[in-house]
């Protein structure tokens, strides 16, 4: 990582990733996942679970069977994305074409500011004020001062915030009107996922987005009337196959869509880039937070990100 990346429940200086490679007749498909401890995942456990699926892959298992037999999460994501990449190489067609999507165009991604002191955030916001969209991580105590520091020092940037389950109902009632007054566009996951019901009786000064509460399409109806936006991440849905289905159902159900990411390399961002086409919010800045990215990684020009090369994925 560039420095220390902090959210409400943890801080890290590095990330551990798992890569799946599936070869067939001289062709190679790749997929990457980020095991996430919040969801009970470890790199070792994910790698072990992937190895257990190898016999089914050798027997010819494809995406549909994979999604029917295995639960959402990092394991399924890496394999699903590798199978998409392999299908692209088999057919000579890009993944967007195989998925029935329009040709992708460049996107503007949010740039994430991790939890920090107001003084440090003021300095960081000044240096990043040129970016069109900033995403600020929150943690509860002191959050209003954090938002004020960013807003004062990046007055022209659009601003969204993410509490990562750190708030109480009292925090929400006190802070959300202030966030709206400061021009914050959206609040992500204020409460622990088992406290979603709190939103049923609270006002809505600004749109609220489900992240930790929202994994796959089967949860959407439970979130209706509570959340305005859903954050779709491939490591939660278990791959691009389910993510595309979830995005379609979410939009049909009246949700706005945010496409997010775990901090990872461009190999993780490439399939998310296809998913993010047309999304209300795009947050695929993972490689910008790392000291080094993969060879042939996505091209970022500031906060603008461009379609993946064939050498990278899909």
Helices and strands in order, then pairings?
Blueprint: E1 5-7, E2 10-12, E3 18-24, E4 27-33, H1 43-58, H2 63-69, H3 74-91, H4 95-98, E5 107-108, E6 111-113, H5 118-128, E7 133-137, H6 143-153, E8 158-162, H7 169-181, E9 184-188, E10 208-210, H8 220-223, E11 229-232, H9 234-237, H10 240-252, E12 256-259, H11 266-275, E13 281-282, E14 300-301, E15 304-305
Parallel strand pairs: 6-7, 7-8, 8-9, 9-10, 10-11, 11-12, 12-13
Antiparallel strand pairs: 1-2, 3-4, 5-15, 14-15
Give a quick rundown of the structure.
This protein is α/β, with parallel strands linked by helices and 314 residues long. It folds into two domains: 18-98, Enolase-like, N-terminal domain (Enolase-like, domain 1, 2-Layer Sandwich); 107-305, TIM Barrel. It has eleven helices and 15 strands.
Can you put this structure into words, describing what you see?
This protein has helices spanning about 45-60, 65-70, 75-90, 95-100, 120-130, 145-155, 170-180, 220-225, 235, 240-250, 265-275, and strands at about 5, 10, 20-25, 25-35, 105-110, 110-115, 135, 160, 185-190, 210, 230, 255-260, 280, 300, 305. An 8-stranded parallel beta sheet has the order 6-7-8-9-10-11-12-13. A 3-stranded antiparallel beta sheet has the order 5-15-14, with no helix packed on it. A two-stranded antiparallel sheet has the order 1-2. Strand 8, helix 7 and strand 9 (about 185-190) form a beta-alpha-beta unit. It is globular, with a radius of gyration of 19 Å. The longest helix is centred in the N-terminal third of the chain and has 18 residues, at about 75-90. The chain folds into 2 domains: about 20-100, Enolase-like, N-terminal domain (Enolase-like, domain 1, 2-Layer Sandwich), CATH 3.30.390.10; about 105-305, TIM Barrel (Alpha-Beta Barrel). It has about 325 residues and is an alpha/beta fold.
């Amino acid at each position: 990582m560039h420095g220390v990346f902090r959210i409400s429940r943890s801080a890290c200086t590095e990330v551990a990733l798992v890569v799946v490679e599936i070869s067939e007749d001289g062709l190679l498909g790749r997929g990457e996942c980020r095991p996430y401890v919040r969801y009970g995942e470890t790199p070792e456990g994910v790698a072990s679970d992937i190895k257990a699926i190898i016999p089914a892959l050798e027997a010819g298992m494809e995406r549909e069977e994979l999604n029917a037999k295995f639960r959402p999460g990092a394991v399924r994501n890496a394999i699903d994305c590798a199978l998409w990449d392999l299908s692209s190489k088999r057919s000579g067609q890009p993944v967007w074409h195989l998925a029935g999507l329009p040709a992708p165009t460049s996107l503007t991604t949010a740039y994430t500011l991790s939890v920090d002191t107001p003084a440090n955030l003021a300095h960081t916001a000044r240096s990043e004020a040129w970016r069109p969209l900033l995403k600020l991580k929150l943690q509860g105590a002191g959050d209003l001062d954090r938002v004020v520091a960013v807003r004062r020092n990046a007055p022209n940037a659009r601003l969204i915030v993410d509490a990562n389950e750190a708030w109480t109902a009292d925090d929400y009632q006190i802070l959300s009107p202030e966030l709206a007054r400061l021009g914050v566009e959206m609040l992500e996951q204020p409460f622990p996922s088992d406290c979603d019901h709190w939103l049923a009786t609270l006002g809505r000064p600004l749109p609220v987005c489900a992240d930790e509460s929202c994994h796959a399409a089967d949860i959407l109806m439970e979130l209706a009337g509570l959340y305005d936006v859903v954050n779709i991440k491939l490591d939660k849905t278990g791959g691009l196959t389910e993510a595309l289905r979830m995005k379609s159902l979410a939009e049909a159900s009246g949700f706005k869509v945010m496409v997010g990411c775990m901090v990872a390399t461009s190999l993780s961002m490439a399939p998310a880039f296809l998913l993010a086409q047309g999304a209300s919010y795009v947050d695929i800045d993972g490689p910008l937070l790392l000291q080094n990215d993969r060879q042939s990684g996505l091209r970022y020009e500031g906060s603008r990100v461009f379609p993946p090369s064939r050498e990278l994925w899909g």
